[in-house]
TrEMBL record:
It comes from the Bacteria. InterPro entries: 3-oxoacid_CoA-transf_A, CoA_trans_fam_I, CoA_transf_BS, NagB/RpiA_transferase-like. The lineage of its organism: Bacteria, Pseudomonadati, Pseudomonadota, Gammaproteobacteria, Nevskiales. It comes from Solimonas marina. This is CoA transferase subunit A. The keyword Transferase applies. It holds the Pfam family CoA_trans. One of its GO terms (molecular function) is CoA-transferase activity. Belongs to the 3-oxoacid CoA-transferase subunit A family. Gene3D superfamilies: Glutaconate Coenzyme A-transferase (3.40.1080.10). Keywords: Transferase.
Length: 234
C-alpha cells in the first residue's frame, strides 16, 4: 500500500510544481479552516500572477492577505471583500482583477467542478450585474443564468485529521468550503493537525475521501480569531 501513502515531508514538497500564472483554490471561511501554512509557503515561493478562488481573502496580515500584500495575486474570485483593507484598496484602484460571486454560487461552481459537471443554471444573480452577458433560460416560470464550474491547478485545504491515504475529517465549522475545494483541484494538497493510523477513522465520518487527495502534510496552526467578542465585566 506504499503507493497510496499521500504524506510528504516538507511544505516545499507539498507545493512542488506550483508556478506563476496558475489557479489556486483555497478552503476556509474568514480565518476559520484556512490552510495557513500552505498559504505561507506560497508567499515564500514568490510565485506571481496567481488566480485565487476562495470565499474571501483573509485579513491584511494573515491568510491569503499576505499574498495580496506581496502582489502575488493577479485575480481574485471571491464572494466577500470585507475585513481586508488592502483587498478593498487594490479592487477600488483597479490593481487587482476581482470576480465577485454569490457565495452559494461559488460553492456550487467548485462542487460542480469536482463532480465533472461543466456548468449549471441558477436563479441567483439574474437581473443583477452578476448575470450580465450570461445565457438565460427559464425553469418553472423563473429565469436562471448559466454559471460555469471552477477547477484549479492546485487546491489547498485545511483538515483536522487524516490517515496516510488522504482520507480527511474536518472539525465542525472549519469544514466550510474545504470539501468542495479538495474535489476541484488537479493537485490537491491537504494540511492537517494530525495523521492517524489506517482504520482509526470511522468510514461514515470521512468528509473527503483519499481519492481526491494528492499530498498530505501535518502542520502546526495559529488558528487566529478574526473578530474576538467578549462581554464587558460587570
Amino acid at each position: 500500500m506504499k503507493g497510496f501513502d499521500k504524506r510528504v515531508e516538507s511544505y516545499a514538497d507539498a507545493l512542488a510544481g506550483l508556478s506563476d500564472g496558475m489557479t489556486v483554490l483555497a478552503g476556509g471561511f474568514g480565518l476559520c479552516g484556512i490552510p495557513e501554512n500552505l498559504i505561507e509557503q506560497i508567499r515564500v515561493m514568490g510565485v506571481k500572477g496567481l488566480t485565487v478562488v476562495s470565499n474571501n481573502c483573509g485579513v491584511d496580515d494573515f491568510g491569503l492577505g499576505v499574498l495580496l500584500k506581496d502582489r502575488q495575486i493577479r485575480k481574485m474570485v471571491a464572494s466577500y471583500v470585507g475585513e481586508n483593507a488592502e483587498f478593498e484598496r487594490q479592487l477600488m484602484s483597479g490593481e487587482l482583477e476581482v470576480e465577485l460571486t454569490p457565495q452559494g454560487t461559488l460553492a456550487e461552481k467548485m462542487r460542480a467542478g469536482g463532480a465533472g459537471i461543466p456548468a449549471f443554471f441558477t436563479a441567483t444573480g439574474y437581473g443583477t450585474p452578476v448575470g450580465e452577458g450570461k445565457e438565460v433560460r427559464e425553469f418553472n416560470g423563473r429565469p436562471h443564468i448559466l454559471e460555469h464550474a471552477i477547477t484549479g491547478d492546485f487546491a489547498i485545504v485545511k483538515g483536522w485529521k487524516a490517515d496516510r491515504y488522504g482520507n480527511v475529517i474536518y472539525r465542525h465549522t472549519a469544514q466550510n468550503f474545504n470539501p468542495c475545494v479538495a474535489a476541484a483541484g488537479r493537485i490537491t494538497v491537504v494540511e492537517v493537525e494530525k495523521i492517524v493510523e489506517p482504520g482509526e477513522l470511522e468510514p461514515s465520518q470521512i468528509h473527503t475521501p483519499g481519492i481526491y487527495v494528492d499530498r498530505l502534510i501535518v502542520g502546526s496552526f495559529e488558528k487566529r480569531i478574526e473578530k474576538r467578542t467578549v462581554r464587558t465585566a460587570a
